[in-house]
Amino acid sequence: MTKDKTYDPFEGFKLISEMWEKQLNGLLYMMTDNNEFVRLLKVGTESHARYMELLRKNQELMAGVMNMPTKKDVANVAKLSVQTEEKIDILEEQIWNLQDSIGLLNKENLEMFQEVVNVVKQMKTELQKMALEIAETKKIQAELRELRQGLVDIKIIQINLQELRKEIEDIKGIKTKLKELNDAADTTAIQTDLQELMQEVTQLTDIKAEIATLKNLFQKRKAKDKDKEKEKEKEKEKELVLTGAGTSKS
Question: In angstroms, rounded to a whole number, what is the distance separating the alpha carbons of residues 129 and 111?
Fold first, then answer.
């Protein structure tokens, strides 16, 4: 049996392209190996560069006249846009950092404010306690003063009682003397003695009345002094309460 071979056009095209490539490479090698061709290429490239530069200048002039952007303008705009984007990114980073730092500062400030509020509350409670203690001490001092004044009054009363006892003893002695005089002397002498005794008794009653008036005056003065002290204590308590309220408000 014979094997039939099918024709593949791609292989033929591949062979032809390889042959053309070899021929063109050889021709280009031969041309580049020639000094005159190299000179011509140099002159052509230089002239092409000059022409392109003139064309670029003309385009810039025409674009300036017609207010149209050139390639340089577009490139500059692209560079500026890139720079602005970079700057915007940097600014965003800085803003985020500032926000973070502001958040930390706010937290610290809140903590400090809470601490200050707690300290103020403690100071307020301590001031209230101090005010109550001061009021209690003032009450105790007032009571002690009243007790002292009562003791002084009791001592005065004891002195008055001692004087009255002495007077009663004197009167008893006088009575005994009168009895003796009744036995020994006349009635006239007794009457004169009785009159003298009556005068002494009246004097004693006057003295007692004066002592009573003095006691009344002393008690009135004590009551007035107590009222004044109470008013002063009330005013001081009001001042303490006002000072405590002022410190708590500040």
Answer: 27
End-to-end alpha-carbon separation of the chain, Å?
A: 118
Residue for token pair 């009054």: 153
Q: In whole angstroms, what separates CA 134 from the centre of its chain?
A: 28
- CA–CA distances in Å: residue 147 to residues 38, 76, 144: 136, 103, 5
**109-125 pLDDT tens trace:** 888 888 888 888 888 88
User: Is there a contact between 60 and 70 (Cβ–Cβ < 8 Å)?
Assistant: yes
In 10 A of CB 234, how many CB atoms?
11
Residue 186 phi/psi, 5-degree rounding, is -85, 170
Q: Three-state DSSP class for 4? A: coil
142/233 Cα distance (integer angstroms)? 10
Domain residue extents for the chain: 9-68, 123-249
pLDDT tens per residue across span 194-226: 777 778 778 777 777 777 777 777 777 777 777
Amino acid identity at 1: M
Q: pTM of the predicted model, to two decimals?
A: 0.29
7 φ/ψ sector (left φ>0, alpha ψ -120 to 50, else beta) = beta
Question: Is residue 112 a contact partner of residue 225, using CB atoms and an 8 Å limit?
Answer: no
Helices and strands counted in the chain (H then E): 4, 0
